[in-house]
Each structure stands twice: as C-alpha cells, then as structure tokens.
Amino acid sequence: MIIEVENLVKNYGEVNAVNGISFTVNEGALFSFLGTNGAGKSTTINVLTTLIKKTSGNVFIDGINIEKSPEKIRKLIGIVFQDSVLDGNLTVYENLCVRASLYPEIADIKSTAKHALKLTGIDYGNRRYKTLSGGQRRRADIARALLHTPKILFLDEPTTGLDPKTRGDIWELIRNLQKTNNTTVFLTTHYMEEAADSDNIIIINKGEIRAEGTPVKLKEEYCKDRLRVTFKTGEILKKELAKTTDAIPFLLENKDKIENVEIINGTLDDVFLNLTGGLTDVN
Fold first, then answer.
1. What CATH class has 3-217?
2. What is the pTM of this model?
C-alpha cells in the first residue's frame, strides 16, 4: 500500500470535518475520492499532502509517517491544483526551470524541465503561460507536478472547464504516466465518467466514508438498472432491476407481445446521488 489512512480525524474548533476515516491506496492505482462540497474531501487531501495537520489518527505515505517526516512526504508527491500556481508572464519552460530550482535534489534544472516537457507532450514550451488554452495550461500544470518524479500524483479536478476532446487528451496523458512510471494517481473530479475508470473509489459525506469499492461493485450495491418495455398495444412498462439479467424471464415470457425493449444501466451518478443526496459538483 502506498497510502494508508487509519482513523483520521480533523477538527476545526467544534466542527468535525473528518470523522475517523480509514482507507488504503495501492501503488500504481487510479484512486478516486469523491464527495459533495463540505463533505471532508478537501480536508483529507490537505492532510495527505501536508498542507494542514491532522487532529488524530495515522497517515502513512510509502510507509513514512506523515507527521514525523512531512519533508520526505513532499518529495514523494506531486499536486495539480484546481487553480494554477504558474506565472502567466513566464514561458512554460521558464516556469518549469523556476519550479525545478526549488528542489535541492534536482541537479540539472534545464535538463529536468526539458524532460518534463517531453513527458507531457508539450511542444509550446517557449510560449507564455497566460497565452495558452485551458488544455495547454493543464498539461503545463501536470509537467510542473512531475519535475521531481513523484510516486503519487494528486489531481484536484484536473479537467474542470475543458471541452470533451481536451479532457480526453489530458486523460490519455494521465493513463500513459500510470503505465510508464507506475505513478499512483489520487483523483477528485466532478465528472463521474472519469471516476468510472478508477481501480477503486471512495465516496465521503459529512466527514465519513459512505461507500468504497470498484466502480462495478458500487453500481451493483447502490443503484439499479431500469427496464422500459413498449408493447404492441402501445402500453409502456417501466420497472427497476436488481441486475440486468433479471429481465430475461419476463422478456422471454412476453416476447410475442413486445414491440421495443430498452435497458438503462445504473451509473456512478446514480450511486453518488443515492449515497449523498448531493450534486455531482464535488468541490
């Protein structure tokens, strides 16, 4: 396990933001952490990335106690924030050089910056950051996070505001990083279809874990498929199914009466809404 969280608690005065949650993340996995606004998701991530201190519990990153050695943790992680931290007046390459200079372990700053550009497929390194499109900026942000070759990449809603094609391009980049570098990706997103590709998902609500599992497992447990049958008489039947195959006996029995059949599979949107009652805008 590259991330281990045991009974994590974070209080802000009398407000219990995170209430004793425990989970693990496998090395090299795509892990999605979902929750509505105020659910405790951002607080948990801020603890894991050493931005704030926990109230109690234990957190280990690659076997290292986060409280005892936060400086070691920072060398293991890269973070892509919702809002960029790069300088709009500098070129992408200049930005990467400046950021690389902040890591004492990076000996050759220029070579490292060029490698990050190549790794992320950026051929516009000489352009000022403020002139870039949304998708180009996101690639530059990811390149910045990869300068020190982190074992874990935290992505906080990395494709928000991007068009579908650009989102697809960014995800192709992320998956390639996983495969080539065995990078662990810790994702938050409000696009449920992105979480559908995860190895594991946790849904948090009001500071507590409401569900955990693979996308398939969560859909099996927390939402239903729906059957819509149009009969030759014009009558329409709608019914919920525990699983899709439950429709087979009914369809076989009534096959001569049926004009049209539609089966609508449950989605992660359904899972999320059923568990939280919230919107899929998970900030």
1. alpha beta
2. 0.86
Helix, strand, coil percent values for the chain (each to nearest 5): 35, 30, 35
How do the pLDDT tens digits run along the chain, 283 residues long? 999 999 999 999 989 999 999 999 999 999 999 988 888 988 999 999 999 999 999 999 999 999 999 999 999 999 998 888 899 999 999 999 999 999 999 999 999 999 999 999 999 999 999 999 999 999 999 999 999 999 999 998 888 888 889 988 999 999 988 888 899 999 988 788 889 989 999 999 999 999 999 999 999 899 888 999 999 999 999 988 887 888 999 999 999 999 999 998 888 989 988 888 754 433 3
Q: By the 8 A CB rule, do 91 and 125 touch? A: yes
Residue with token string 């076989």: 252
